[in-house]
Structure formats: C-alpha cells, structure tokens
Design brief:
By secondary structure, the chain is mainly alpha-helical. Among the domains are: about 50 residues, Double Stranded RNA Binding Domain (2-Layer Sandwich); about 45 residues, no CATH class. Helix content is about 45%, strand content about 10%. The protein is built from eleven helices and 14 strands. Strand 5 and strand 6 form a beta hairpin. Helix 2 packs antiparallel against helix 4 and helix 10 runs antiparallel to helix 11. The chain is elongated and about 85 Å long. The N and C termini lie far apart (about 80 Å).
Length: about 300
C-alpha cells in the first residue's frame, strides 16, 4: 500500500502504478489466506450461523473475503477482484481482432458484445413482432414496448415513458443542458437530431429528402412533407372560425391573427373579462378576411 501511495505521489508512469496495484492485491490475498487458515475454526462456526438462503448484506459479508485495497469493495473470488482492479489500473487486455478497430475491453464479455457490432448476427428475437437484436439487454428493453407499461415518470410535468433512456432524453426539455455541440460553430443542441439537421442545412449543404414528383430536394423531412402538399392539394390545417384550410400551420396562425384583428376593430368590443371569440366575427368581415388570406397563402 505504501508503494502504491509513493508511486501516485511521485506521478510515476502508468505501468509502475499498475505493478504497484498488483503487488498490493497479491499482498492482500496472501494476508487473507493466512488469516483464513489461522481462523478456520472460527470461520466454520460463522458459516453454520448463516442461512443458506440469505445473502449477507452487512459490512462484514463473510462470503466476500477478497477486498480491494483501493476502494474497499469486496468480492467472492480472487478472479472477480482481479477484474475489478482493472477499473483502477485502466488495463484492458481484451482487444478487438477486426482489422482497423482498436477497441479494447476489461472483460471478455465486453469484447464478445462488441464483436457483434462488426457482423449482422442478431440471435435474440422478439416473440411478439419478430424484431432481432444483437444483445439480450436490448431485447429486454424492447419487450417493454409491447407491455405498454410506462414506469418512468418525469418529476416536472408528469409525462411517463416506457424506457429510462426516453425519460432522460425528455428531461433535457426542462433543463438548460445542451450536450450536442456543432464542431464548426458555437451552436449547441439538446438532441442529436437537432445537431444533425443543423449540420446538413448550415455546413454540409446536404438535401437527402427528395420529392418523388418533381425531384426537388430538402434538408429536412418536414419541409418535404409540406412541399408534397402542393402536389396533392392537401390542406390539413383548418380555421375554427371560417373553415378556411391551409397547407402549413404557420399560415393558419397568420390567418387567425386576422380574425383577432377583426374582433378588436369591431363596433362591439368584448369586455376585458370575456374571452375573444373567433366564431362571432361579423360575416361580411370574415368573408373579406378569408378572401384576402386565401389570395395571400394559395
């Protein structure tokens, strides 16, 4: 332990720190082995008092006799302790063998999971919809979609989500967190899709969304959907006062301002306590406004 502290204090190389840690582990294991042999009779008495169906949760944890000399965490086997020590040493002995990939991992299971990203193997299949996954953890998370149970609730607005990752993503709406930064300008975004949209439109000039009718290209899929309505004639946004229809929500909002303007300039102005009604606008004024707006937004 003193050797390890000396290495850290002198800011020695990473290899020397790792060697010091392993010396510390070896010394700890040797001391624990001697203590176990010396106190064999006491251990037998203690084991007889512990129920076979109960997992010790107290600070002693007699079934976890291998303790980390850095953080004090205890483990049942020496092998588990050795794997844990890699957190402190930074050692990652398991390297990906795929050419061009320099990923390394502390455990063999991590390498096994990573290797599937280089192949199309998806052995874990959902029995409800047939969707396939590379890892059992991804399948378990997907099954929550079919159950419909929304266990994760937002403390701010009460919105509920099926997956914890969806809740964490939603919570950025209520915070000032903007983890996604543009590499070419100081603009930041709350969500990755916002960053991708910004990079395509402002820096890359990419327009991946192409109209199948006239081949006009757009940077955002929302703009493509609005454009397609010029071919189909669809006007999904309806005025609740005069039933005038529009292709864009922004056009409807502008149109509604005309109704509010008509109400404010009418002879009988509503009292401040009464809400302004779009439906009670004078028919002649309404027809005039709708005619003007139709010519403006058609």
């Amino acid at each position: 332990m003193l050797l390890l502290l000396w290495c850290i204090a002198k800011k020695t190389s990473r290899q020397l720190v790792q060697c010091a840690l392993y010396v510390c582990v070896a010394s700890e294991l040797e001391q624990q082995t001697i203590k176990t042999e010396t106190d064999a009779s006491a251990k037998t008495t203690l084991d007889s008092q512990v129920s076979a169906t109960t997992t010790p949760t107290g600070p002693e944890m007699p079934d976890r006799k291998h303790m980390c000399c850095i953080c004090g965490r205890r483990f049942r086997t020496a092998a588990m302790l050795v794997v844990h020590m890699r957190i402190h040493t930074g050692e990652r002995p398991y390297a990906c063998e795929v050419p061009g990939c320099d990923k390394r991992f502390a455990q063999a299971s991590g390498l096994q999971y990573h290797t599937r990203t280089h192949s199309d193997a998806t052995p874990y299949i959902c029995s409800d919809c047939g969707r396939q996954f590379r890892h059992p953890g991804l399948l378990s998370a997907h099954l929550a979609v079919h159950s419909g149970i929304r266990r994760f609730c937002c403390d701010e607005c009460g919105a509920a989500f099926i997956m914890l990752s969806h809740l964490r993503r939603h919570q950025r709406v209520h915070s000032a967190e903007q983890p996604f930064a543009c590499s070419q300008c100081p603009v930041r975004f709350k969500f990755s899709w916002g960053l991708r949209r910004h990079e395509r439109a402002m820096h890359l000039g990419e327009k991946p969304f192409v109209c199948s009718v006239c081949d006009k290209a757009f940077a955002e899929i929302g703009n493509l959907r609005t454009h397609v309505r010029t071919h189909t004639g669809e006007r999904p946004f309806v005025c609740c006062a005069c039933n005038q229809r529009f292709t864009q929500s922004s056009s409807l909002k502008t149109h509604m301002r005309l109704h509010r303007l008509g109400n404010n300039t009418s002879a009988e102005s509503p009292s401040p306590s009464e809400p302004v009604s779009y439906v009670n606008t004078a028919p002649v004024l309404t027809n005039l406004l709708c005619t003007e707006s139709s010519e403006s937004f058609s």
